[in-house]
């Protein structure tokens, strides 16, 4: 073992020189032994060669063969080590970077070569592992990007805000492996001011959030995302008091606004054994920002559509939207056999007031009447500004008798308005002339044009009756 270790620690050049020296020494020793070999020196002759010559030649040949055998053994051992290195290289070429067994080095040079080769294999193995980690991270990132694109496409096709909220909760819970998520809306002018827009799971919110004091919510107050750790301060987000056992779950709350009036909170809880890393917080913020952008676009689109359908001065529907909306109500009344009443309103002597007191006084009258309409009618009723001082009001599922009661309430509300503070030297309280018609098969008033014509005829009768009165449509009598 000591000899083998000594050989393996010797360089190839040294071994070759040593083998040559050993071979020469063996040859010299063989020659000397042959020369001193006793015997009959003249007993065998073959031409000029005597037995002595043959003895010397034989000794030299045997010694040389022995030296060559030693050299062959050493070279074979070196080749075997080199073959091991070659086999390892072939495995690397085939992509195998597992532990490669190598034979014991024949020389120190081969040993250094094997050591360098093993270091190269380790570096390649580490590089492959690092590459695998990078590829895995890239695949995960690509999947995240694909999910974000899927989320964006999904909510862009949504027509209602509730669909966006539920989709946001679904994607957040799936992508971040949340134990619970809720979207909470806050509008100061509404009642209740705070409502749940969406939540997963369904029982994630344990109490009525309408009782939540928004002033106690740091996210709403500061309008900044907050991270609430389990080992942090005992006072956490104001939403926690309405959740089921939130103390053991790391929480993250992201607020965002949609327009000047609407505030929303996305409150998320992770499982107890996980933490809110920077990557998770950024991903959650990206989802929320995408939803906020879509909600803002949806609100702007709704506002633009509303503005295109409403009168700028009064806020009621304009004449442009009258045909489409009333056509729908006529179709519904016909399909479900429901009553439908329509009345037309004209402000008495509006032109005189407008000329005497200016256009500002006339605008004030129109806006005052629109306010009376809003506080008198139901949400399902439709009010339109038909012309300068003419209005059309549709009352779905309302008979003509019920419409008369609505009209009387409207007239009383308009008569109770104090115009003296806005219009000085007003001679008398402004009044209204109103004509009412009902969709009726008996009166042959079934289509939209016939219904509007009947209401207009009733209004004409009210104006001819010295104004400030209400008239019902009566079909013309046959001659």
Description of the structure:
The chain is built from 12 helices and 12 strands. By secondary structure, the protein is of the alpha+beta class. The radius of gyration is 51 Å and the shape is rod-shaped. The protein folds into 3 domains: 1-156, no CATH class; 161-306, Beta-Lactamase, CATH 3.30.450.40; 310-472, Alpha-Beta Plaits, CATH 3.30.70.270. The strands form 3 sheets. It has a 5-stranded antiparallel β-sheet. Strands 9-10-8-11-12 form a 5-stranded mixed β-sheet, sandwiched between helices. Strands 1-2 form a two-stranded antiparallel sheet. Residues 38-46 have low confidence and may be disordered.
Secondary structure topology:
Layout: H1 2-8, H2 12-35, E1 45-46, E2 49-50, H3 51-93, H4 108-156, H5 161-176, E3 180-186, E4 194-200, H6 218-222, E5 226-228, E6 251-258, E7 262-269, H7 278-309, H8 319-336, E8 340-347, H9 350-357, H10 359-376, E9 382-385, E10 390-396, H11 400-415, E11 432-438, H12 448-464, E12 470-472
Parallel strand pairs: 11-12
Antiparallel strand pairs: 1-2, 3-4, 3-7, 5-6, 6-7, 8-10, 8-11, 9-10
Helix pairs in contact: 2-3, 3-4, 4-5, 4-7, 5-7, 9-10, 10-11
Return the domain count. Answer: 3
Order of helices and strands: HHEEHHHEEHEEEHHEHHEEHEHE
Q: What is the total tally of β strands? A: 12
> Describe the biggest sheet?
5 strands, antiparallel
CATH superfamily membership of the largest domain, which one? Answer: Reverse transcriptase/Diguanylate cyclase domain
Radius of gyration: 51 Å
Order of neighbouring strands in the sheet with most strands:
4-3-7-6-5
**What is the correct CATH architecture of the largest domain?**
2-Layer Sandwich
State the end-to-end CA separation.
139 Å
Helicity range: 40-55%
């Amino acid at each position: 073992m000591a000899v083998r270790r000594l050989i393996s620690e010797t360089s190839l050049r040294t071994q070759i020189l040593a083998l040559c020296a050993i071979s020469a020494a063996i040859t010299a020793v063989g020659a000397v032994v042959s020369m001193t070999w006793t015997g009959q020196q003249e007993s065998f002759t073959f031409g000029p060669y005597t037995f002595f010559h043959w003895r010397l030649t034989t000794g030299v040949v045997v010694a040389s063969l022995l030296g060559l055998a030693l050299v062959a053994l050493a070279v074979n051992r070196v080749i075997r080590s080199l073959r091991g290195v070659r086999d390892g290289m072939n495995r690397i070429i085939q992509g195998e970077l597992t532990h490669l067994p190598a034979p014991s080095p024949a020389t120190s040079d081969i040993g250094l070569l094997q050591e360098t080769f093993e270091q190269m294999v380790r570096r390649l193995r580490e590089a492959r592992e690092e590459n695998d980690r990078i590829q895995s991270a890239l695949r995960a990132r690509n999947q995240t990007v694909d999910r974000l694109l899927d989320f964006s496409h999904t909510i862009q096709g949504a027509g209602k805000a509730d669909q966006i909220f539920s989709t946001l909760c679904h994607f957040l819970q799936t992508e971040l492996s949340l134990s619970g998520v809720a979207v909470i809306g806050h509008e100061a002018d509404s009642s209740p001011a705070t409502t749940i827009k969406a939540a997963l799971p369904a029982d994630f919110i344990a109490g009525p959030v309408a009782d939540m004091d928004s002033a106690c919510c740091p996210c709403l107050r500061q309008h900044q995302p907050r991270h609430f750790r389990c080992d942090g301060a005992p006072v956490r987000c104001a939403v926690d008091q309405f959740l089921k056992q939130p103390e053991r779950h790391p929480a993250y709350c992201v607020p965002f606004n949609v327009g000047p009036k609407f505030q929303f909170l996305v409150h998320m809880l992770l499982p107890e054994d996980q933490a809110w890393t920077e990557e998770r917080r950024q991903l959650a913020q990206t989802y929320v920002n995408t939803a906020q952008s879509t909600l803002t676009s949806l609100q702007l689109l709704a506002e633009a559509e509303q503005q295109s359908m409403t009168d700028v001065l009064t806020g009621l529907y304009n004449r442009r939207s009258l045909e489409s909306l009333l056509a729908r109500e006529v179709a519904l009344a016909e399909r479900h056999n429901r009553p439908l009443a329509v009345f037309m309103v004209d402000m008495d002597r509006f032109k005189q007031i407008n000329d005497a007191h200016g256009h500002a006084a006339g605008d004030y009258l129109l806006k005052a009447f629109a306010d009376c309409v809003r506080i008198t009618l139901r949400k399902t009723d439709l009010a339109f500004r038909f012309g300068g001082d003419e209005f059309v009001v549709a009352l779905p599922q309302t008979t003509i008798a019920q419409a008369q009661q609505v009209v009387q309430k409207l007239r009383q509300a308009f008569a109770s308005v104090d115009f003296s503070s806005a219009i000085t030297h007003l001679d008398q309280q402004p009044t209204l002339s109103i004509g009412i018609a009902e969709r009726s098969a008996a009166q042959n008033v079934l289509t939209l044009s016939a219904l509007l014509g009947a209401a207009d005829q009733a209004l004409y009768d009210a104006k001819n009756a010295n104004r400030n009165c209400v008239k019902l449509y009566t079909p013309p009598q046959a001659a």
